[in-house]
Known about the structure:
The protein is an all-beta fold and 112 residues long. It is built from no helices and eleven strands.
Amino acid sequence: MEDRRPWGYFVVLSDEKDHKVKRIVVDRGMRLSLQRHRRRSEHWHVVGGEGLVTRDGEQIPVRGGDSLDIPRGALHRVRNTGEAPLVIIEVQRGDYFGEDDIERIEDDFGRA
């Protein structure tokens, strides 16, 4: 089931006690909020599209086949820089995976 957001949507593929897996689709020209998590880390594998990841001030271009880690507490966001949807498989690890573990620092949609 798709969980629609202003930037696109995500689908939860697995939600277990020790991990959560999401398929994240970022629409063309959109970006997620600048955020961090206190209780989880994330591993992102880019399935398709092109984007720019910000991780603790570092700018990292990504495209299909790339992977990167988002450590617990790291400030991060992703922006779709291509013409097609940006598709990411996100694997979360930690002791809590609720959406209320998102601390938004900056947001294009007034949610910070």
